[in-house]
């Protein structure tokens, strides 16, 4: 198995401070108990820190920016000590992302000027896509971002610490500190992890969590360019996705569904200051699932924690087949002492087992000569599908079958299915190779009421070994029910 220590929200509180040495000491002591726990826990192979490295400073803080620099020095020191203690000092096995507390409010405010609505509805201005407008409840004033360069520098302090931490790291993928995504490789290339910044439009007046869809698209296309078969795709971000109607500081659940569609099967985040494990699904016809794990806060004071929760971190053990994981919650029930915690959503147990559907194969491996052309072509085809120009997409795919390889098969399946070109889809997927293809082609035979062809495909699928007995049983039952309804 491959084990990840998942830590989040390491910002400190003046009301209940805890030093780096105290943190390191109690985590090391806790890890020494791992072999004797029930069930035993394996030692970490990597560390994920899902945001909020510092507490940040309020607007017009008199000690800005010196105090902010001091906070990041403390965070850098902790990252270095954790790496030395648990991953042999190797920063490439430590994944770090920013959170909302890592947004420099004072820098963001410098980029804004008071604005007038000029007779327009303020709510309309605030809800424009990528709106430059902000509303200050304290000042009862509308603001507008007038200097995008300064606004983008609101992550400057985080980026400087980031560059410093990874300065000597041996990484397969180049890191761009101010980019909203970066790729990491773990477990000898079996795990590809994308570290997202979910604070795209987050600042001193806007508290939302957001990963723009274009950021997901950029990272996906970069992922497809990488040679080698990754057994598991992992996404890490900061904000939680379970916000109530009146709350504004969480991420849209549709972003997670987009992640599922891009092949991510394990998600990790922080922000809500409590550990949790939740499955989320995307239904095309077959159900695709992702397991989303939340880590509690390592350093928050009692006033910053949800009622009934203490300081926490997680240990995530990924199975050797990269299809499931066990997440252990470690909790500071006694000040200064971590031990087994509990997942309130799962009856108070200290661990939970999660699983997900397989990561789809990545076949666009031509990252050398011609690779850029392939990626541009894929981007164009995906764009045609997204705006429902299916005939154009199908034509492009059929003209480029040789260079698109297996991913061309996936794209053609998607375009034919969305266009409801059932006869062509049945011809294309006459011998389905995975559960998604089986789901699509059975749906096509049902739409055509071509029951003999559907039964033939099910018989073939039993012999290929591509499908579990449970999957075949589910599809046979569904197909029989549809056939019965039609009579």
Question: Quick gist of this model?
Answer:
The protein has 487 residues and is of the alpha/beta class. It is built from 15 helices and 16 strands. It has helices spanning 20-32, 66-86, 105-110, 122-126, 148-152, 156-165, 213-224, 253-261, 371-386, 390-399, 401-418, 422-428, 435-448, 451-464, 469-486; strands at 2-7, 46-50, 94-97, 112-114, 133-136, 141-145, 181-186, 191-196, 232-236, 266-269, 276-283, 287-294, 312-318, 324-334, 337-340, 351-355.
How would you explain this protein's 3D organization?
The chain is an alpha/beta fold and 487 residues long. 37% of the residues lie in helices and 19% in strands. The protein is built from 15 helices and 16 strands. Strands 1, 2, 3, 13, 14, 15 and 16 form a seven-stranded mixed sheet that branches. The chain has a six-stranded mixed sheet with strand order 7-8-9-10-12-11. It starts with a strand and ends with a helix. Mean pLDDT is 88; it is low at 363-371.
Ordered list of secondary-structure elements with their pairings:
Blueprint: E1 2-7, H1 20-32, E2 46-50, H2 66-86, E3 94-97, H3 105-110, E4 112-114, H4 122-126, E5 133-136, E6 141-145, H5 148-152, H6 156-165, E7 181-186, E8 191-196, H7 213-224, E9 232-236, H8 253-261, E10 266-269, E11 276-283, E12 287-294, E13 312-318, E14 324-334, E15 337-340, E16 351-355, H9 371-386, H10 390-399, H11 401-418, H12 422-428, H13 435-448, H14 451-464, H15 469-486
Helix pairs in contact: 1-2, 2-6, 9-10, 9-11, 10-11, 11-12, 12-13, 13-14, 13-15, 14-15
